[in-house]
Amino acid sequence: MFENRTTHDATVGIDGSITPDDRGSRAQALWKVVGTGGDGAPAKGSLLTGSTDVTLTPSTGYDFTVTLGFDLNQNGQLDASEVRRTVNVHLIYVENIAVAVDTPVVNNALGFNFYMQLKVTGFNIDHAYITQLGPVC
Amino acid sequence: MTSSVGDNPAFTADSNGFINVAATSEEDAINKGIVADATATTADHTQYHFGNGSNSPQFSVARSETNDFLNYNLFLANNGFNGFAKIQVHPLIDINQPNSFTVSDVNNHNNKVSQTDNTLAPLLAVLDPATGYATIKVDGILSANEAPRRAEALWTLRSDGLISTEIAAQVTSESQTASGTLAQTDANQVIHLRPGLYNNFILQFGFDLNGNGYLDGSAEWQRSVNVRVVQLASLNVDASAGTISASAKSVDTTTQTLEIEPADQQVSLKLTPIVLPPAQPDSTLPLTVYKVTDADGATVAAGNFAAGPSTILLPLSFPNYLFHVLAGIDVNGDGALAAGETTRQVDVKVVHVRSLSVTGGALSNSVTADDAQVKDLYVETDPVTGLAQIRIDGEIAPDDRESRSEALWRVTSGSGSATPATGSLLNGSTDVTLQPGKTNDFVVALGIDMNQNGQLDDSEIRRKVNVHPVKFSSLTVSDPTVVGDSVTVTNGSSGKLLIELPATGPAIIQLNPTVTLDNADIRSHLVWSVSGSGASPGAGIFKIGTGTRVQLTPGDTEYALAAAFDTNNNGIMDETPEFNVIVTVARVNGLIVTA
After folding, report:
1. A76 close to B (CB below 8 A)
2. Nearest residue on chain B to A81, judged by CA atoms?
3. N or C: which end of chain A has fewer CB within 10 A?
4. Which run of H or E residues covers position B564?
């Protein structure tokens, strides 16, 4: 998930598929978003109103867990025992792209066709690096 | 001259020197050793011999055929006398003697006594129940029975030592006089004897020898009859059937009634009369007779009490339930109880408690106890007031107002209360409000107030129903596999429950009712049903212990659970639901997260 270049926030839409897909069941189908550095906003909700946009704000961490289940014990929250579906969301912040000429090609004097094979040497990602990408032209 | 009469007590000498022959009749004179000589005449101065020095004087007197009141001039000779002294004797041989004195019971002409000697003759006069007194008639036969002579014969009535003037107040107005003569007409000789303080009357009959106008001594009481007024003072009827008994006593002309519920036993009646005065060994007591008839007047039994109390068995073949026990003195002496002779009556009503019906709340929730087995009724209490309503009714035979008024019911409880707690079937069914207590159970009992003490005694109970108020306060439906996944609804409310369909197998719900004094019997009267495809079982009663579990295998995703008190006792949830729970069987198919 790529974050907003300016705010560094990311937004995800959360929805679910349940049976029966009625208001009563959706009202009792709860989700919540828990992050290692902070929770989503909103951090929890139900499927009553359909898909919900949740803002993920990385602070100290970039990993979030979205869970879904029925509030079977009717305590108003989704307990661990009630979680039936889980999605892990990882935020990726691309700071820059380093590009280098991998194999310079110089054509003959008859033309100025320069062909360079560029090589992305890496992403400067806050918490991860892609060390190898495929050929880029 | 006194010594000349010897030792014969029939002779006495008076102050004039006459020897009186105290024979009261010619027959008496003969009996006393006076030999009448029909050939003698008044002119004869015949010598008579007392015997040869013996104490048996023998002499003859002559009597006139034309004048009964003769003075005989007798010249008696005494062996001890020197010579034959002639003594003029003026014999008072009043040969007009009371041959017999008859006292008869007017109501029973066969009941009379004719006394011919000077002993006391008994007579029992029967009390006429219609008038309240006995009626007797006096009569007599004199040796000289002509009307003028009858006027000389007196009778006097006294009672228990009272002289005749005192007894006058005790006889009735029809006969203000307590004395009279035989010259009176028959009507005037009828005496009514009303037993009150005294029921023992003595009639004296004789001649006023000393001429003072009344009979005043034993010398003048020549015939005596003791009249006692006899009456059937009471009739006691003891009815028994097995260990059941009931009694009634008739002491006046009011018909008494006894009721007995024989519980299919043969009913035995013991009839015991009390006759006053009590029978004496030497008296001839008029028979006290009885008759027992059924409701149609047919004679069931008849007899008398000559041998004491009588016992009869009633032929019980319902609806033969009413019997009349009649008794009285056999006034006319025909050995049977005539219509006018009945003085005591006890009606015996054999009442049968057929059934006791108790209905709780809905009319369909009813049990009927029609035998000795105690039945049970479960009644739901009002969820708001906590009270239970029952209706009590019964069936008895005969089903008449009187019997129904004697058919009593009562409602008892260890700690609860019933309003009203007692009543009868007189006005048909009765609605009773039960306020359950700690024990929560009530007993409705029905029987006949046989001893007529106004309450239903334990021994009188024939039918019984135990009433169990049931307070079905709430119902909890839960997923037994998920703690907390449950819903509890109160009586009259509804709720929803979502349970999750497990990965494998059906979803399960568990049903648990909350009832007061929970037990299997009570739960058996609580029914439920689940509508929706795949519910198994789909209906039933609540089980005790772990509760009732229902498998939901969708099918449907929504199931309607209903529960109620089984008012019609058919074990089926066809009542208006008191509890409604919608159970949703849900599952999560997927979680969608989009960037």
Report:
1. no
2. B482
3. C
4. strand B558-565
